[in-house]
Design brief:
CATH topology of the largest domain: Arc Repressor Mutant, subunit A
CATH superfamily of the largest domain: Winged helix-like DNA-binding domain superfamily/Winged helix DNA-binding domain
CATH class of the largest domain: Mainly Alpha
Strand order of the largest sheet: 1-3-2
Number of strands: 6
Length: about 140
């Protein structure tokens, strides 16, 4: 996605199209499911004066504006992705920590309904599957 389009997306969300915000969106486009540290390292060559705190602030702004999604797999740092507005879940490798998207079987939110919602009106369900990715499965099979 080109810079002009990202600037337009930011403005449509009511945010200023700063170099930092555009660069973070570009980074998340290239590296889905990135944590703040990964984004910070990726921005180093592009925005050498950027601090990790600034990256956290921008990620917070983008999340609040609905432009990125924050996911928090157990035992992992918060991860951010640009894929928003659909009903998808995630699978996390218990071997290496790789994360991948998993489309919802039903296709619309919420795709799961609790047997007793305790009076809550359920809007969405967030599911994390855990298992071994193909690379870790191969390594496990090859291990003596």
């Amino acid at each position: 996605m080109d810079t002009a389009r990202l600037e337009s997306i930011l403005r449509e969300a009511g945010l200023k199209a700063t170099r930092g915000r555009v660069a973070v969106l570009e980074t998340l486009t290239e590296r889905p499911h990135a944590d703040a540290e990964t984004v910070f390292r990726a921005l180093g060559p592009v925005l050498p004066g950027t601090s990790i705190q600034n990256v956290h602030n921008v990620l917070g702004d983008l999340t609040a504006a609905g432009l990125v999604r924050r996911i928090e797999p157990a035992g992992s740092a918060a991860l951010y992705e640009r894929r928003i507005g659909d009903n998808h879940h995630h699978v996390v490798c218990t071997g290496c920590g790789a994360v991948a998207d998993v489309d919802c079987v039903v296709g619309h939110a919420p795709c799961l309904h609790p047997s007793d919602a305790g009076g809550f009106a359920i809007n969405t369900a967030e599911v994390t599957f855990w298992g071994l990715c193909p690379s870790c499965q191969e390594r496990t099979a090859l291990a003596p």
